[in-house]
Amino acid sequence: MNIQENISLQRLNTFGIARNARFFTIVGSSESLAEALSWAKDRNEKVLILGGGSNILLTADFNGLVIKMEIQGIELIAEDDAHYWVKVGAGVIWHDLVSYAIDHNWAGLENLSLIPGTVGASPMQNIGAYGVEIQDVFESLEALEKATLRIKTFSKQDCKFGYRESVFKNELKDQYIICSVIFKLKKKPDLNIEYGAIRDVLKEKGIDQPGIREISEAVIAIRTSKLPDPKVIGNAGSFFKNPTILTSQFNELKTVFPEIPGYILNEGVKVPAGWLIEQAGWKGKRFGEVGVHSKQALVLVNYGNGKGEDIISLAQQIQQSVMEKFGIQLQPEVNFI
Ligand code: FAD
Ligand code: EPU
């Protein structure tokens, strides 16, 4: 085990925030993970698990042990007439898995193309895009319990997935470290092109019988057209969740803002936070080193030397102005560290 000291995390978080880890190590197996956790426990050091750092906001130096998850492996473990079960190490890069699945004609991940980060973090917030969430392709996962260093298997039900939610962000927060995930993928694709933009891109390209590769390419084209590339400009994707409001509140807002978009759900109406933020006048605004992306108002950006505190202050001002204009409370999607 190689424990390094005072390591910069700036290149290890996609916001590009310059903060340091007091201690830092990389793990490539559940055994080395257990070893690192024991080391931290013996010294009473707190622990942060880091995947691709694409959904965190560093607000301070981390005065403990940062464990970078690099457990590898993509393994076909079972199949039947209709499905493949694939076990994937937590440190595998999410989009590498998507590409591997497409190359092997394993269907189900194509709408989730190009989401940054690792497989191990994907269940944390039940990642989703373009009409699909990982709960749709999830079978089970194995996680190491911090307190006992024992491996536990979690079924889909155990994970309590919701929109950008799981048990690991709530009741079991900071208690388990995900080591591997088993996905249940399909032999015969069940194509999901409900998201209007996917249909439009396919039409533009003259594709009327898409396969999973064409869907993946369409998703990649849409994403690259509006989401900033973290290698060029620091960001963590959507900063807030899309709020669900009561149907009665939505109907009232519609009388004042007839063009307000909304998706009807059983529990109310989901309103795109990007629309609310744009209408409140924030889109493309820059404040020193931080700002609101010009093509997607839900994405806060760091132009280079921004601090976590600058992003938080901007986020709070946005929350306040959206509350004043629409009476809607925006909740952050990003994890504050
Ligand atoms: P990290 O940021 O490293 O970690 C996130 C949280 O999970 C932290 O609390 C960390 O401690 C914890 N964690 C990480 N790995 C483990 C593990 N193995 N076990 C236990 N806890 C762990 N998300 C979407 O859902 N849909 C999108 O379309 C999307 N688009 C994005 C676009 C851009 C440009 C960016 C920058 C981000 C986007 N995101 C999106 C957010 C992000 O990609 C996902 O949340 C991703 O799953 C984070 O993975 P990560 O490995 O980078 O996690
Ligand atoms: N919109 C605006 N102005 C903006 C941005 C959006 O008016 O600046 C409105 C438009 O009406 C648009 C609608 O919002 O039609 C939806 O926008 P978009 O399709 O870009 O999706 P989103 O709701 O902003 C969500 C996810 C993304 C995911 C996309 C595609 C959340 C919080 N975000 O964004 O996930 O990639 O849908 O499915 O649910 C992430 O979680 O980090 C992320 C990027």
Strand fraction equals 25-35%
Number of strands: 20
Helix content: 25-40%
Category from helices, strands and their pairing: alpha+beta
Overview of the structural elements:
It is globular, with a radius of gyration of 21 Å. With 337 residues, it is an alpha+beta fold. The protein is built from 8 helices and 20 strands. 26% of the residues lie in helices and 27% in strands. The chain has helices at residues 30-42, 94-103, 156-159, 196-204, 212-226, 247-256, 273-279, 308-326, and strands at residues 4-8, 20-27, 47-50, 56-57, 62-69, 74-79, 83-89, 128-129, 132-133, 138-145, 151-155, 176-186, 234-238, 244-245, 263-265, 268-270, 286-287, 290-292, 299-302, 335-336. The strands form 6 sheets. A 5-stranded antiparallel beta sheet has the order 6-7-12-10-11. Strands 1-2-5-3 form a 4-stranded mixed beta sheet, with helices on one face. A 4-stranded antiparallel beta sheet has the order 13-19-18-17, with helices on one face.
